[in-house]
Protein: Peptidase
Amino acid sequence: MTYCVGLKLNEGLVLLSDTRTNAGLDNISTYRKMFFFEKPGERIITIMTAGSLSVTQTTIARLQEAIDLPEADETTSIMRAQTMLQVATIIGNTLNRTRREIVEQCRELNQQASASMIVGGQRAGGEMRLFLIYPEGNFIEATEDTPFLQIGEHKYGKPILDRVVRPDTSLDDAQKAALLSMDSTLRSNLSVGMPLDLAVIRKDDCRVSHRRIAEGDPAFMAMSAAWSAALRDSFVKVTI
Structure:
């Protein structure tokens, strides 16, 4: 399992993913689930993945292959698409086609394969957008009413996002909210694990700032401890 969250704010995007892949109690591995396609100053596209590793890895590989083809154009390459909507459409079609092929290959074994993705970014001169792409290839978009999207094991980290994240939330506060959302998930579900990948994309910059947060990171541990203490203090003060 995994947990990925993306926040779309007036100032830009904040994206966070874990790296744990669980294929059973005795088969736990670390795989990157955040991928960047970037031409600094011209466009930045970030993809986060959840679900079957065979589906997500093959989809990412096919997207990269389409970019590298000499005949690539705006209908096949996410690095040539004219809008983020076209980017989401290309990714959705590729994800759906890949999923269908792998499901067919696994049919005799009676195995299922599914995956979902969060896609965010901006093209110079265009609008910054954030999409959640379903296994079937269709998608929804973050809005002012719902400025964040989640995939994977999302239920533990949703309450804090519901309470604090608004379009006018600053990028610094949004990073804190995303990390605390992840901290709640890490505490409640062993199928989500560190290290974490945190990315920030400032509006109209068309470039990404990325940070890898390893197990035992002092800043993350201090934030987690402070949040736990604050919750305990608030709990004591509440009356019924």
Q: What stands out?
A: The chain has one domain: 3-234.
